[in-house]
Amino acid sequence: MLLKLTGSSCSGKTTLAYSVGERLGRLAVHDFDELGVPEGADRWWRNRMTEMWVRRALEYQARGVDLLLAGQSPLGELLASPSAPLLDGIAVCLVDVSDEARRARLTTRDSGRWDAPAVDAFLGWAAWHRKHADDPRYRPDVIIDSSWPEMAWHRWTGWTADDRRWSTHLLNTTDRPVAESVDEVEQWVTEQRDALRSGRLTLSRGWADQTADRADHDSSAPPPHARQQGRRPLPGCSAGS
After folding, report:
1. Are strands 66-70 and 2-6 parallel, antiparallel or unpaired?
2. ∠121-97-116 over CA atoms, to 5°?
3. Residue 174 burial (CB < 10 Å; 0-12/13-18/19+)?
4. CA angle at residue 121 from 95 to 157, to 5 degrees?
């Protein structure tokens, strides 16, 4: 299956992914931007790269290996990728952090790289991620407008927040020890794998063919919005994990 850690920059996605990869077997770990981000990378670039990673996940799937991917593509982009329905399973975790902590991390990690408007844009992208994770109807234009023509947005644009398939786990890393966050991601990966094996994963193969009623009433999975605790930017930041 494809397990995705998403969110705006400086939430800790890549650190968590590689740490969990050291603990679990049959799990490949990659960073979305590891092949480089071209100058002027835009929404088309991110859409096409998301599809590339989905295809990479399918290659791992054929070998019985799961892919844990850290990057900024949200659930809606992943589900709209042309090859997404071919995956045996999909699960997404939003790794988030407070605006104050994100601002401080951007300043520390990339000292002098971002001016104030750019930092504010990262914060706006983070705010959009949170609302997108809760409700597919919240400003889908942010990722749909001027997107790659191959994207199949119709797969989910008719869904509501109550659809069990619209499921994103939330992990807030603000003021938490890294080890504690790693433990939670490890537990999340393990739970998603178990759900796939037992037939309880809401985004298992066939999800794109279900009607909303079937998705709501035929699944025994827990409600998607249960929370454990507790962005070029708003119009779709493309780089930096």
Report:
1. parallel
2. 30
3. middle
4. 65
pTM of the entire predicted model: 0.85
Query: Rounded mean pLDDT of the chain?
Result: 88
Cα–Cα distance measured from residue 75 to residue 156, given in angstroms and rounded to the nearest whole number: 10
| 41 vs 25: CA distance, rounded Å | 34
Residue pair 27/196 in contact by the 8 Å Cβ criterion: no
Measured CA angle at 129 (ends 34, 12), to 5 deg: 45
Sheet order of strands, 27-31 included: 27-31, 66-70, 2-6, 90-96, 168-172
**Residue whose structure tokens are 């990659």:** 30
pLDDT tens for 175-207 read: 999 999 999 999 999 999 999 999 999 999 999
